[in-house]
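P.,

For your records, the input lines for the assembly:
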Amino acid sequence: MKALILKEFKDYWSNSFGLISVAVLLLLAFLFLWVFPDSNYLSYGLAEGDLYFQFFSYLLLFAVPAYTVGFLANEYRFGTEELLRSLQINWRSALLAKFVAALLVLLMILVLSSTHLYVIYKLNLNSSTIPLAQIIGSYVGLIGVGACYIAISLMVTSFVQQTTASFVISVFVCFMLFSGFNLLSDLPVFEGGLDFWLERLSLSYHADQIGRGILRLSTLVYFTALVIWSIWLASFRLNTKEV
Amino acid sequence: MKQFSIYKVFGSVFLLLGVIIFSVLVDTQWDLTPDKRYTLNPLAKQIVRSTDEPIVITVLLEGNVPASFRNYRAYLDHYLSELRRYDRDVEIVYKDVNKGSPEEKLQFRKFLASRNVVPINRQVSSGDQVSQELLFPYISVHDDDDIIFINLLSNQQPGQSEEEGLVEAQLAFEAKLLRALRQLSKVRKPQVHVVGALSQLITEGYNRDERMSGYEFINSDPDLLLENKDSVDAIISVVKKEDLSRAELLSIDVVSGGDVPMIWLVDKTQTTIDSLRRSGSTMAMGSSFQFEDYLFRTGVRLAPELIMDLQSSTIPQVVNNGSSTEQAQMMNFPFHPLIMSNDLTPLAAKLNSPVAAYFVSPLELLEFPQSVMKEVLLSTSPYTKSIKTPRPIDFGFMQIRPNPEEYQKGPLTVGVKVEGRVKPYFQNRLTEDDRSLLSKYNIPYTLDSQYIKQVIISDADMAIPPRDKQGYFPIGYNVLEGRMYDANAELISNLLESLIDGDDILAIAQKTTSLSLIDKQKFYKSQTFYYLLLLALPLVLLFFSYIVYHWLRKRKYAV
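Structure tokens returned:
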């Protein structure tokens, strides 16, 4: 398992795509959080981490499928899928390895972007103490959001072999999960009834909560259940796929 | 080989939904913010539980809001959804006032204007477009009978940035909402009887003021007070020039002695800025009122002195600037001190600004009686002196710069709360007229000790709504400066709330937050350094790791 994870992680860095995509991501974060008017921290005015965490929830919506679909799509592209089958490697283990490798890439992005949080709390007008519990909680949540995106992207790629199509569908599914239920809950027909449940089915609701430093049991269950379900569905699909 | 079964997939989706729904039903939250700002206060739960009818909370701060409002807006969303999660009888509605047909918008805005809901104009950007938009920073709370509008903003203080004002407003929100919910849960508004020569002026001004909308002020007299003895929730007595009549004092003694709280706002000296400005000089005279004797038994004495404070409001003065022309200039007038509240007590704490007072006398707190607890609520700044009355005063002292050495008397008490047991004031003093007044309402005069809860403030003007030929100004409006002192009305409203309902909501209003503003100046001063930290450092680390990884790999596989 460890070897599989390492293999996937190294594969990601073996070409310049990985490097450029992370660099673009960091550049976008910098522009949106500190340069572009209205979305930047100086217009926001508060030395709070919530804007950073919320922005990254959105950014990862595109970034995570972009690099995750490659983990599985490359197996189809290079024909190594056949090799995996012949080696009698359990698809669940292979998917878990890809999931963990993608999670490691995500962690690396978050570590590199942590300078934003350092600057935010350094610029705090009243105190220079960093609310560690709040930040750790919010990071746990953001990793949870990213893990959901990864699992969904792997699940979509298990059904759609073509890389571009897989990316577009993954982004669409992630977006629907992120904002779709939330937008539905705003419809007048659901007001005062189903809107409550639709909102809680939305990933953006949970992302928003943890971004502010509120960790919920339902959020942890939501992330875990969604990840397990997506990986299970992907492995079910691959195990039952006719060659 | 296993077959792909669509039924299995659907089954797993239902299982997933079931797990998520179950987790929401048994949900619990950990608020990781240092100030626990997203946790519903136990008092909020208690107040929401006590409301019998379904409550609808309508948020009017909708649509495109400026960036600086986003955190507050998100906090509002979270707080209200928590309230709804706790009690499903609370319905949250979001209404964008700027949406709808022109007729609908006009009609709704007219309704809002009739309830003193006034919009603010803010620049908002949407994509590339920047536009001016009318924002209604209000929420309304209503049940079947009543509707209350809550202003989400606090009054911005001079020199305060919008962001600072928003943080302060966010802190004050919970207390405002709880106050409104408590008001809705009551069968009727608390009745506050106003007694004294100025009662009509006060009653009209207070009943018109939205900030006092939680109470019904009644222009009272001895008969009305005694007749409604059991429904009186509080008494306010404002004494300026005319003393209270014996009948008024007797009715106050009977009703307030029956555990009804009371606020005294009294002037010891008869001096006004009008008389001083009219003739250039006036005689500051101390009066001797009957009610002073009444207050004395609680261990509080009005000193026959006038306070001069370096921290004061201003008045316009004509000054000669050296040339032949004369100019009006705003100058500090030490007889109009700006009073500070004692932050240690919720009763008068968290006033947004100092209370503007006018010709104030110090209060002396005596050692006796032991049965009465005295708590200082309001005091002057430390830079004070007091002058004995009677004494002529004019504007002459304003020609020279005040010498701080003369103003070293320290903070002087001007507001105090007294609570405890005292002897009935009219014991062994009842006349035939007194007896006949009481017998008219079948009230026996108690000879047992009375439990009193009263606040004494040695300035009447601070609570009187100013008036001119055009009509009333709101409470706290300083006509000479043309400026509002919101703390004057907040003080009276806080005192009434504390005396009638207790300090629980006021204690919430006192909470502090860990929310803090970004130091923009610090950022702009070292902008390059921060840009390097935010962009260059992560990129350098990324490229460096990439190069090292590939160099190691190359070396490993080198032939």
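Two observations worth noting. The first strand of chain A starts at residue 214 and ends at 216. Chain A has a mean pLDDT of 85.

Regards
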